[in-house]
Design a protein that fits this description.
single chain, 184 residues, alpha+beta, eight-stranded mixed sheet, two-stranded antiparallel ribbon, 3 helices, 10 strands, 20% helix
């Protein structure tokens, strides 16, 4: 929703981050370098995502939601699946969809922390997808519907509208998902 407030204002490539997260110094250096790269004039949008090792994005105080990424051998995003309940259980990184059965995530899985670089033209695409979201998702669950940015990117990937270069960072993410996270 916040990105849509930039319609008509942002004319240059830009970064998107969550306001309640700290991503680390190297992450911001990677974003800066990416935004200053020359982009080719191709038929598809060229996006970039800073990817975190999932183990660097967890809290000891409960479950977290993360976009778990699949990448190609050359480092491009091929798929992203939002896992809404990831936790450390018995020393392993696990996720559940139903709250009962848990599946282990590979230790070096890449997680999206909503740290993206986009060209300004993406705003028009976001507006189109958002209109569909309002028509199709909100009526079914008006109090809980959320327009997930990773879903937009995943849909654009599957439609062949974009490529997403995944730049991995060794930084540790810090956020306050639970009040118990605040001291850290």
């Amino acid at each position: 929703h916040a990105i849509l407030s930039c319609l008509g204002t942002v004319k240059e490539p830009f970064a998107v981050i969550n306001a309640d997260d700290y991503y680390g110094r190297e992450t911001f250096e990677l974003i800066y370098n990416e935004l200053n790269k020359e982009k080719s004039e191709g038929e598809r949008y060229e996006f970039c995502m800073v990817g975190f090792r999932v183990e660097n994005t967890l809290t000891e105080n409960g479950t977290v939601a993360r976009g778990v990424c699949q990448t190609s051998a050359d480092g491009y995003l091929t798929d992203i699946v939002e896992r809404t309940k990831i936790a450390i259980r018995d020393g392993k990184i696990m996720f559940t969809e139903d709250g009962e059965s848990w599946t282990e995530l590979p230790e070096n899985s890449v997680a999206s922390m909503n740290c993206w670089c986009f060209p300004a033209e993406i705003l028009d695409e976001i507006e189109k997808y958002f209109i569909d979201f309002l028509k199709n998702e909100v009526p079914e669950n008006p109090l809980k519907s959320e327009f997930f940015l990773p879903f937009l990117v995943r849909d654009m990937l599957s439609e062949g509208k974009c490529t997403v270069d995944v730049i991995e960072t060794p930084d540790k993410w810090f956020g306050v998902t639970y009040k118990e996270d605040k001291p850290d």
